[in-house]
Amino acid sequence: MTGFVPRTVFPTHTLPRAYFIGHHAKAIRRMREMVTEIDLVFEVRDARAPLSTRNSIFESIIGEKPRVVVYTKSDISAIDPNIFKSWHSEGDYCLVNTRIPSSVNQLLNIAKKYSTGRESFFGLNTMIMGMPNVGKSSLLNTLRYSGTHRGKAAKTGAMAGVTRSIPSLVKISEEPAILVYDTPGVSLPTTIEPDTMLVLSCIGSTNTGLIDPVIQADFLLYQLNKMNPTGMLYSKYSKPTNEIEEFLTSYCRRMGRLGKGGHPDLSGAAAQWVDRSRKGLESKVVFDDYNNLNACKEWEEKLDAKKKLQHGPLSDQKFRVA
Ligand SMILES: Nc1nc2c(ncn2[C@@H]2O[C@H](COP(=O)(O)OP(=O)(O)OP(=O)(O)O)[C@@H](O)[C@H]2O)c(=O)[nH]1
Ligand SMILES: [Mg+2]
């Protein structure tokens, strides 16, 4: 189709602004208690939404501790690796695909660098932190496999909330000795941007049942059109369109989801398509405004302003359990 022009604004919907539940609050309390015995933090973010999966709560927990920012799911993110490089001119960061053991070698080497010259008898204690479902337990398993050739130590799964408490230390390197705590994913008590919950839902970093699947599918369509205005990223299902009903009707025809009387199951199709995208079975995606090289800085400024207005210093916040 010639002349197709993607939408530049996503329609406003009334959406939940947070999904902060009991085990998140409990995990935060435990992390605060335990952080004194931690030498290095692996702060994990999803490479498809590197801004939306930052969590200011971690800033107040980590404080001045050494940290490596780990962007998981790099294999299904459409962001150019150079963008991450420009964000981290200072400080350690890694892009990983936890499904490929060699992709965590750089991270292991960074941890080994931190353990050099230390005289601790017990080894380097590290902790993995991150929002729900970003791949923390998968990262632990892959680090363990790469560093010690041992099998899985942590349960993983495609939905948020698989890890509910902090298990005991797991060894990921013998010489030097490096040990890791996995932790439960922790959400923000309130999100900053109106669409953040949509982003988190589309990548599976929150309860994906909170938002109507058709709205999630519409948001995915909107993002894909922004990334590539030719419609190529979903051309196996539909011609280029801004209309989610048109897209889903075409998807139903292609996927054999027409019900009685030939009526398309729009809601079921929406849930299926978004879930396939979440799992990386569709094209690579990106949900944050990564073209803006100052995006991280702007995000931090917005967060600071909001924080001051609403909560006072993060360290003094009393987290309300939803
Ligand atoms: N494509 C891809 N999928 C990944 C990667 N890392 C993890 N996953 C998948 O992401 C899903 C979540 O992984 P987990 O390791 O359970 O995530 P988590 O952060 O521990 O989740 P919670 O414990 O629920 O907070 C699983 O389906 C993993 O297979 C990656 O680098 N690439
Ligand atoms: Mg986990």
Q: Can you characterise this structure?
A:
This protein has 322 residues and is of the alpha/beta class. It has a domain at 22-190: Rossmann fold (3-Layer(aba) Sandwich), CATH 3.40.50. It has helices at residues 22-34, 56-62, 81-87, 105-115, 136-148, 196-203, 213-227, 244-255, 266-278, 295-310, and strands spanning 40-46, 67-72, 92-95, 124-130, 170-173, 178-181. A six-stranded mixed beta sheet has the order 3-2-1-4-6-5, sandwiched between helices. Helix 6 crosses helix 7 and helix 7 packs across helix 9. The longest helix is centred in the C-terminal third of the chain and has 16 residues, at 295-310. The chain is elongated, with a radius of gyration of 21 Å. Bound molecules: guanosine-5'-triphosphate and magnesium ion.
